[in-house]
Fold each of these.
Amino acid sequence: MAVNPFDALGLPARPDLTDEQVRAAWRAIAAATHPDRPGGGDVARYTAATAAYAALRTPWGRSEAFADLGMAVDDTSPLEVVPGSAADGAGPEPAVRPSRPAGRFRSARPRDLIAAVGQLPARIRHGRPRRLLIRAAAASLLSLAVLHLIPGQPAAPALITGLVTWFLLTGRSDLAPLAPPPR
Amino acid sequence: MSVWAWLKLTVCLWLLRKMVKVMGWLLLAAAAVAAWPVTLVGLTGYAAAWLRGWPPARLGRAAAACLLPVTAVWLAAEAARHPAWPAIALAPVRDWARGWHHLTVIGATRTFLLVAPAAIPAGLGLAALAWAWRIYALTTGIGGWTASAPITFDVRQWKRQVRTAKGRTAAPGSVPLLARGERIPVGGTIRTIGHRWHPVFTISPAACARHMVIVGATGSGKTNLMMRLWAGWFTAALAAARAGRGPRPLLVVLDCKGGRDARTKADRTRRLLYGAGARRVAIWPDEARLALWDLPPNDLAILLYQMIDSGTGAAAYYADIMQAVLTLATMAPGGPPLNAAAFLDRLDVRWLQRAWGDGLHPKELERVRGAARHLPDIQLRFATLLGRLGPALDGPGTLADADAWYFILEGTREPSVAEAQAMALTELAARAATGTAAEPRAMLLAADDYSAVSRRVPLSNLYERGRSLGIGVQVSAQTWQGLGRDEDERYRIAATADGGIWVMGTPHPEPLAALAGQRRVLQTAHEFVGATWGDRGTTHQARAWNADPDLIRRLAVGQACYIHRGAATFVQVARPQPAPLSLLPARAPVDLPAPRREAAPAAEPLPANLDDVLGPGGARWP
């Protein structure tokens, strides 16, 4: 079975790693396992890391290795920024989610719906949660006011339905976009 | 009639006219006060439209949108309470009449809430009508206090429309890469003339799959627009492929200026496409290679011939010889060359004589002999050209290896090399589009600043080629002049852009704006009495630009005018960003092409018997 070069360097399997991140990971392993170290180092690990670095040193190489990966990797943690690198300061690109097991894509609507609901917390977190909260608070307060001022009147459910509809329609813009379905 | 009598009659008539007018206003005010919930909603809607630069349609749609969740639910609740329809219809009137007995803040609020299900749609509808009338009155010149009112109104509304569009564009979920109905969102709509207004302007992926022209000066936000269109098209085409409605997409971008900026753009494009679901995005020539030698021998010979400047006049004689030699070299019986070194080896008399000297091709062998003394020159020229082109076209690799290719051509630094590369790459793209052996792909060929390399292959050629091959072509230029060599060519390119024309801030937008056509408008001339308007005036029909060139000239960074089918829409383009929740693509089996090596040309045939060489009883092998 082929060695995963991302694993060999202790990096998350993502195509958007930067050159600096890959180089830093390789240097750390090379410094710890080099054969010239007292005790002979760890030749096997050093060789694997060097081979992995050769494979991942360019963006195209990372793209190739990433596409060749056999298994999904459940690492969604934000990338560690290499001090002094180009990514430092600008920050890494938004985190990407893990892939799903390989399989033929089927456009099953209920599955998409469940996936969309599952993404909701992340969409709120990556969107504008404060604005969404203000919208929700405004809709709730107005609904409470309606219930307090005209309890039991036919207009009350109508207005509350209207407020809920308004919240659902306008709140969408405060959510991060849906992720495309996996390939 | 005496002067006094005439004066009295005139004053009376004036007073009568004014009284009728005042009575009309008083009646309107009385109705507004009487129907105060509707007035309140109407005023709020009108003020919101004025402050945010909404078109009347926005208010009209809001009124219609209220009908289902608010009015319908209210009617259903009323029906459950009063089974008789007259009672339901009179319910708001009853609530309204009861409200007059409790003229307190709480009482008024309660009354408003009770009648709101009817008052909100009615008020918004009235606000839409009033706002439409206001716009009509000001744009035709029959409204406003001063003669400059239409101008100030337009300027102010433009600013508000821009502010609203920017706000919409800034919201994270407003402008994703792909919208409902698989349409490509571009940004917040500022203003539409002839097109239907939507808060977020979208175009269909089919428009991208045709031909599109983008003109904008440096720093006008052209790159963002193009990236958004690429990513949107890719996402839409991928979604269609997944649903089994089309082939997989292949995006080919030619960045014809090159330099460091091109690398940055390429990296951004790659990240964006990963977020859009792309699995492999290749950046050429920095990280990936292509094999020029994969072309069919005939096409290869023509391309190699076109890549060299051959000149005219007496030089045409040598050009013909060169073309003949190239045909002999590429169509040799053993097959076409597999790389540059093999090709250069073939530009040799002995190689060609061996290849064609099988006894079956006497004519070709004759041509080889005829061109023999020119072969070293031709070899030298091609060695120089291929050396300058570098190894990036020497393979291995094909366009099918990636979902998207970003080609960086150094059109500013090395125009002649970039031109040759552009020719080769468009030929490879054409081959990928028409090849029957490979998997069919939906292809979009985008050429950014193509004018940098268009000396040898005019843009119109690229355009017509794309049209004939059924691939989408998107070209960008900094100015109208950058689109082509002469007006004829420029008009040919722009007028056939059936996917639409995007014009961003550019100094000479008139020819492009003219393609949006004109519309009929009313212009009113007023009689001036002193420093103020009199009662008399005339209105006449005139024609105005759909896409006002002055407005286009003043577009800020990130603003664009989309011209399509004789109408125009001004858009605040949203910076494209991948969804932060993008799922990583699943794996796919990959067969990396191994570097190819051509078999050495057949060596001199070995003698059947070593005695022929060494003599009888000659040296023996140890």
Amino acid sequence: MNKNLRISLYLLLAAFSINFAIAQKADTTFSRMLDSAMLSSAKISCKLKGDFKLTKQQDAPGTRKLEFKSITDFLVAKTWYNIDDSIALKMMADKKFLIENLFKTQPSPYPDAVSNQVECPLRLKPVPFDTIYSNLKVSSFRLYANDRYIYGECTDDVIIYTSAYILAYNIKEKTLVEIKYFTPKLKPVNIPEVLIRKVR
Amino acid sequence: MKTRIFLKFLLISFLFIISFHSIAQNPTRPTLLIYDSTRVCDGFIMWQDKTKCQLIDRNDNVLYNFPGNLCSFYDNEKKIVTHVAGNLVVYNKDLDVQWKTSTYIDHELQVTPDNKVLVLSVDYDSINHMWVRFDAIRCFDSTGKELYKWSTLAHCRYLLDFVMKDPNIFRYKIQGSHDPDSVLCKMAATLTGIDRNFQDRELFHMNSIQVIPTNESEKKDSVFRQGNILLSFCNYNDSLVTFLAIVNPVSYKILWYYVQKDAKQIHTPRMLPNGNILMYVNSDCRSEVDSSFIDEINPITKQVVWNYVERFPKVQMRCSHGSCQRLPNGNTLISNINGYIYEVTPDKKIVWKWHTNDTKHLYRANWYPKDKLNWLVNDE
């Protein structure tokens, strides 16, 4: 299986996890969704199709970073190859830790300080979901981003994109993939539909 | 009659809805109030609150959000150093964690010129069955290995002896034994009471570290030489008067100190290249003075050579927070508890002003030259 196909497969599977995270359906439903994803994997083409174009490729020892752009959407996929389970799982845990803490209130340097701070609205906080399916461990979030694809915004007026943030580790192939997918906030489709349509 | 009651009901309901709406409002973006592009020191601003650090440009475009409430950079390694949920964490712009070590950092996180990380962390110890909080300076190398820890608990005898020598610093007379544990325990109990939050039982509260850079004063007195450490001790629970100290970087013996009697707290004292020390000072809450101020002092004469006073509206908390930084063009960047960041010229004219309504935890603002953060902001 070539690398682009593997990325596409991960994308599809992770898309279902995002979908699940948003819909908060039961585990059994999710398993069925993954099963159908696996069954339909044969239909996945070897490259991202649609109006996506590869705009950037960065190769470094053990990693590859690809950026795809369409008229409205942006996708970044970074892959680490030949990575040990313990290192990959630690990387996933560390990245989750940072993403989640972008929205958490830390203790104040001055405990006596009072605040009228309005915390990040719940609807803008990350919606996480973790699962293991066969050889694939997936962590994913629904996030929002500003015009520079920066996470961590908590005000509607600067949020431009809805984003799927996906970490998927293939235990068998020792490959870790990180995908950030950005689509306009006002676009009247949900992320999984977009992802699935475009990777086929 | 019924109509009047109904109207009153409507009015009360309306007021209730309005007040509820004001409480439950969503965060709003900060407002850029003043921007004189001809006189500001061009560069980026990083501000920090309880949730994150945020890098903005002078037009208030958000360039990056950093997880963590204290942030700094490894100058040459394109890495971010920060405190996240009780951990010192180093990561790159893609959030790939380089190393992480458990330590609760309070107030300060500095990357030294030789790429070490100096932090102020919190230490607790039980003395006579009572928890007492102390601060510790911890130093890590660029791989996360801890090089040393200097704790006010371990050196309390030395610090107590030092502060008790000068009645300008120490407010209270110790009765009875001078045994450190006994003194500390008595102090903690006397000053804070058993029912207070245990975090308040603290004698030596530090809130700032600077490794002194090369400066003009070191030519006149070796106390101010490059590499010594400038510390700020706060009047945290009324035990001490706020003072600054310069210490030896190895022995941590106090070589110089400066008492600020009128201050509740001093923030971000920094030795400037001209040999003066710039500091943000919260006025003493017990006084009628309703202000904070920025002082630039000559450390040899201890005289104020430049001063800027902030006039606050009456707010509940005006006695904590704030920061200042002298910029390369001579302007001074100031942040305060009321959510303002602004830049003043040497003649005290405000040339850039930014305000956020959403935080009373605006802790610090730091200026960075654009070329230093190209790796973060541009697509490198």
Amino acid sequence: MNLKKFTKGKNFPFVFLFFFLSLFLLLLFISKGTINFSFKDVLLTIFGRQDNKMFENIILNIRIPRVLGSFLVGSILAVSGNILQLIIQNPLAEPYLLGISSGASFGAVFYTALVKIFGFSIFFGMQTFSFFFAVLSTLLVFILAKEGKKFPIMSLILSGVIISFLFNSITTLFTVMYWKNLIHVNIWLLGSTSGLSWNDVYMFFGILIILMTLITLLSKQLNVLSMGDEMAVFSGINPEKIKLLLILICVLAVSIAVSITGIIGFVGLIIPHIIRMLKGPKSLTSSVLCVLGGGIFLTFADFISRTVFSPAELPIGVVTSLIGAPMFIYVMKRRGNKL
Amino acid sequence: MINIKNLNFSYGENFKLNIEKLNINPSEFVSIIGPNGAGKSTLIKILSGIIKDYSGEIILNNSDLKNFSHKNLAKLIAVVPQEFNTIFDFDIESIISTARIPFSSRFSISESKEDKEIINNSIEQTDLNMYRGKKFSRLSGGEKQRVMIARAFAQLTDILLLDEFSSHLDPGHSQILLNLIHTFAKNKNKTVISIFHDINMACLYSDRIIIMNHGFIMYDGKPAEVINKKIIKEIFNLNAHVIAHPTKKIPQIIFE
């Protein structure tokens, strides 16, 4: 069957197909890795019938949280990217546009420098610092962009660029001063899903539920917002409030993800593009598909990052960029001028 | 229907809107004409809730515009903008369905049966049947404005604001769409306020013409009362003859 014809039909079978594809891929990526398991072993473990304790331990406590965690981070990044692109009405919008990534890197580097200078260290310090600075840099972007009671989109984008430059240059300064201590930070910054635990999985799942609930409740409003502020006013919506609420939730979600996995680029940019190209821009449909699409993309990238140079690992951010950039060029050339 | 008193709004140093008194009656078709920068669009923006920091009093259906929520205002006033575009690939039904948002409960996911019927009706009324499922962004300028008119019809409001909606269209499309709106408005007793650049169009369709310049209302009356050689010269600095329409008893201008 012609793929394009198929994807133009009703949304439901498409979501269903995507859902089962995701389940199958999750199973596949859980079973394959530095150690390969059979599907049977994985399924036995999931249903609590695994007799081999070592298999059970690796599958249950290392492989599954890592694969599920990657899936959820991919979903969060793609959904947030989709929402931001719709609200900001700019195809270049992605979760990192508003300064999140530069703030997060600064936080991580700043923390490491503090450790070096003052011998000061706290539990989960790097994560806490990067989350805090990711949120801080976004707040700065909003303060800078504010005009009266409004946050014009162009000002937001420009402020994002300026704040990113500012944080990135201080990050570079620190890196030059303390480079010996910062190599492991650099690797962390490029993204890693290797340390994901069940606790991370639960947290990501909670964040995703909050995001999707909000999108479901506000789906009509979100559709109009993507048609512009004036259209929103004509349709009886106060654009500023809903825009702020949605952007803040996305920023928080992405900041938490970034503080745990580092900066994983391209997922939030390219997955929403592809999804909207296939199934149109309606907010709820495209977001549900982004959950699955982003998840599939990042579990695949995670699979590549841990298998290609096994037992060594590639930073997952490098993998997503290596796959994402050519994909993005292909999509850009194919889509003509519509998003 | 609409009563404006001492409306003041300034934008930057050079632009000031100042309307001492303006009353628009129910089911009137009123046109606003005037040179660029006269304040026509600003007035429409204030009435549609986009500009809020004006001073003075605007009474809509016996209550002050300042007390209207966006939602309640959208139940009373529908707008056809000068031009609408979206970078996303929405189908025309998605665009038209936004008109029903003010009437839906806050957290509803899909349209009610009633809303779907209203949307279908306005698609029929505007002859858009063959465009169902088509992407808005791929339509021509005239087709886009037809969708925007369908959208405004679907809002089922008592007041329609038209912001020079035909200024990018060829004469044929302008006439078809204006006939569509005029018939709709007269059949359903809608109040229409429309900005025109084309003085002849304004004369043909309006019960009343308001002429604005420099933020003030200069003349206000039936087409035959306010369109004459002297006023056209004074307001537009345009040398024109004013003649009577051969079949309708209204003035039309021709360039000198």
Amino acid sequence: MTGEFPIPIPARLPKKIDPCPIVEAILELRFVTSESWRTLPGLLFANIRDRYPEQKDLPLAQLPEEIRRREPAFAYQPLVQFLSRDFLIQFGPRVVSLVTKPSQYPGWPALEQEMAWLLTQLQKIGFITEGERLSVRYINFFGSDIFEKLLLDVITGGKRLTGAELSIATVLRRPPLTARLQAANSAILGTGDGVRHGSVLDVDVWLGSLDFEVFQDGLAKFGEAHQFEKQIFFGLLKPEFLATLGPEYE
Amino acid sequence: MTTILPQPRESVYQLSENLRDEALLLGVRPAAPSEGEREELLLSKLGPKGWGRLHHFRHYYSAGWGDGSGRPLSPRALETFYRFLEAAAFPSGAKPSVFLTDEGGIELCWEDSSGKAVQVEFRPTEVEFYVESQRSEGSVPRSAVRDLARRIAAD
């Protein structure tokens, strides 16, 4: 993409909206290591068990390592989860991520603080040789058709496409940041005690390997990616829709 | 990939059935941004053999390859390598050879138009080079990799 950024960035961004549409926020770090995967979960768990006492294997962990390594789609998938009261940490041979509990977003300051703590633990353990990708992803859910409320239209034959089941994905760049935006008006959200039908606005923002130093400016870069994600999210909402969400500003 | 493999991770949401992409289950995955351009770049500059070797280095060489001490491919070295390739011009017919170094860097070797050796090694923070025809060798920071490519191409 070249030229002007296509989403209008609001002059000021709310610090909170209610009801909060965030169902999951994920801060992810992809990395390379010279350590064997066999030793890594134990190393990490030994350092985080006070805060994350529960450990759970994910389905992919059942596959033999050789098969996982041969399938590129699995390269950055987590194999283990560590759970605390407010967050979970997902961990794989080339990825570690901090994830909020479903529909319990605690706010950026709390998430950032937890990430700072996690980075400190990772630095102490010392298995990360190099960062490969740093990303911030927010998944938002709305009970109604989100396309009616976004400054985003799909046009066919000169007319706005309305009422149809619709899913779009696009990549937006503001170097060094890259964002993948997915919007869909027919999604199913698992809520633990059932499902909800509605729309998702899923924004994933990342930096590549040359644009961050994990243990030097990693936390600040997570902040920059979060800010960009927030600009995209609020930039897409029609002002009249935003007004219904009771935005609170600084 | 086959459909008998477990899904990598359960997502917090799913698209409705009509919007779901069956291609994902059939093993076709969407390309990462810029991946297509980079595949084209590799094929045009290094040929199918170079493309294939790099694919192997990226996906099948994990920590401990070789005699047990080989390091996995450095993402920074790889990114720097791509930037070099974008600016590089190789002699007609030359298909440079590409290697993974023990330290996880990438080494590129070819012969210039007079048949003299050129070697460039991409490391996480710098790029080392040797140009036989000029009897010159040295290193530059990764930020200067495009200039290095143009300089070598101009000789």
